[in-house]
Each structure stands twice: as structure tokens, then as C-alpha cells.
Amino acid sequence: MDAFAVSIGLGSKHAKRTLSLALMAGIYFGLFQGLMPLIGYIGGKGVFGWIESYAPWVAFCLLLLVGCKMIYESMSEGIEEDIAIITHKIMLILAIATSIDAMAAGFSLTILKVNPFISCLIIGITTLLFSVAGVYVGERSGTWLESKAELVGGIILVLIGLKILLL
Fold first, then answer.
1. In angstroms, rounded to a whole number, what is the distance separating the alpha carbons of residues 89 and 51?
2. d(CA 35, CA 121)
3. In the 3-class helix/strand/coil scheme, how is the chain assigned residue by residue?
4. Distance between CA atoms of 111 and 130, rounded to whole angstroms?
């Protein structure tokens, strides 16, 4: 949802080259949002034996922190406000910035009964599609939806953390 929110902001402020911007956002955000949870999963597997009994609490705390960060950020201005020209360097920075929390959330994959590679592929493809759509939504709607998308994403992460903790 944070990549979707940033894509909305980019689309609302850079509507001149919508197709190329949408494809660039989709590829960068999709790739990084798909890879970072895998990195978190691999790192989590490395330490899982040490903290196995605490794993649900660790996953809950990470998702709570990431979710609260997204909720907080939904109430402030986005970084894309100050970006005049979208270059590959800028997109790389935005992709890394929006996917760092996905690495922390990827740790929770270690305690779920899912294939992490398929999960990360689904995350990447979903993010690609949402990012492309976000640019077009931003072009047509402006920025009013941007913060709401990030707010919903933060709430969803907190709820997933609660579900892991309680089950």
C-alpha cells in the first residue's frame, strides 16, 4: 500500500508521461517489494532457531511498528512532493525506501505455512499492478487518495500482526 500511495502521488504530480511513469513505478516497486520480504524471510530463517518460541511476538512487533509507521506517514506529506523529475535513480531510492518495511514483514513468513518464493512472487506482481494503477489513479484524482491508501495499508499490517499473535 505504501508503493500504491507513492504511485498515486507520482501520478498526480507528473501526469505528462503517464505510461512510462506507470511502467517504471510498477517495475521498480514490484521488484523491490517482491525481493525485500524474501530477504527478510532468509534472515528470519537464520535466527528462527534462536527465537522460535518468541517468533509470533517478534512478527507481531515488527508488523505493528511497520503498520504504525505507515499510519503516521499517511498523515504527513509524501517525499514525492519535492521531486521535479523522475529518473531511474529517484525511482531506485523510492523503491528501496518503500520496501524496507517489507523486509521486516518478510520475517513473518518464517512462521506461516506458505511457500516464501510464491508469496514473494505474488507480492511483487500485486505491487507492480497496484503501482501502475496508482499512477493512473493519481493522474485522475490528485493526491486526496494517497494518504488514505497508506492509512489502510498500515491498519491491515497491524491486523495481520494481531492475527499472527492470536493464532
1. 38
2. 8
3. CHHHHHHHHHHHHCHHHHHHHHHHHHHHHHHHHHHHHHHHHHHHHHHHHHHHHHHHHHHHHHHHHHHHHHHHHCCCCCHHHHCCCCCHHHHHHHHHHHHHHHHHHHHHHHHCCCCHHHHHHHHHHHHHHHHHHHHHHHHHHCCCCHHHHHHHHHHHHHHHHHHHHHC
4. 26
- What's the confidence (pLDDT) of residue 27? 96
With beta carbons less than 8 A apart as the criterion, state whether 52 and 94 touch.
Answer: no
Q: What nine digits make up the cell of 115?
A: 511457500
Whether the CB-CB separation of 145 and 40 falls below 8 Å is answered with no
At residue 19, what are phi and psi to the nearest 5 degrees? -60, -50
Q: In the prediction, which pLDDT does 80 show?
A: 47
158 near 59, Cβ under 8 Å? no
Q: Where are the domains of the chain?
A: 2-166
Q: Could you give the CA distance from residue 161 to residue 16 in angstroms, rounded to a whole number?
A: 40
Predicted TM-score (pTM) of this structure: 0.72
